Amino acid sequence: MANTTVTGAKAIHGQNPQARTQIFPCRIYESTYWKEHCFALTAETIIDKALELKYIGGVYGNQRPTEFLCLLLKLLQIQPEKEILVEYLRAEEFKYLRALASLYIRMTFGAVEVYELLEPLLKDFRKLRLRNMGLDIR
């Protein structure tokens, strides 16, 4: 499976969905996590990988992408249905799965849908761990 968007994918806000990330996708494609764990993931199997997440973040160290960012790019590749994403959000016991789904929704959906889907998450006060540019996790 190549590192391309699925056939028949919709353009998001007028551009390729994989171009929505701030980091160059080639950095993600070169990461060992992408090569070992993100190959052939589907909307169903990505849940298992999201449950293993221990923190959110973008890049760290020498511009290495975090697992969270790799899974976000995979979601942008496979473009799951809206119903699947809503189910991700309903899984209240898995905060990192909800964070992944909410960021994907925020990046790809329209303003009204974002407001309708993500407003209930404002009542969720659980803390998320963040990996910053250094090697520390807060």
CA radius of gyration: 14 Å
How would a crystallographer describe the biggest sheet?
2 strands, parallel
Total domain units: 1
Please state the oligomeric state of the protein chains shown. Answer: single chain
Detail the poorly predicted runs: none
Strand order of the largest sheet: 1-4
Structural class: mainly alpha
What is the 3D form?
A: globular
Helix content: 40-55%
Average pLDDT across residues? 85
The number of helical segments is: 7
The helix/strand order is HHHEEEHHHHE
Strand content of the residues, in percent? 5-15%
Tally of extended strands?
4
Beginning-to-end CA distance, first to last residue = 35 Å
SSE topology:
Elements: H1 25-30, H2 32-37, H3 46-51, E1 56-57, E2 59-60, E3 64-65, H4 67-78, H5 82-90, H6 95-108, H7 111-118, E4 130-131
Parallel strand pairs: 1-4
Antiparallel strand pairs: 2-3
Subcellular location: Nucleus
Protein name: Pre-mRNA-splicing factor 38
Organism: Candolleomyces eurysporus
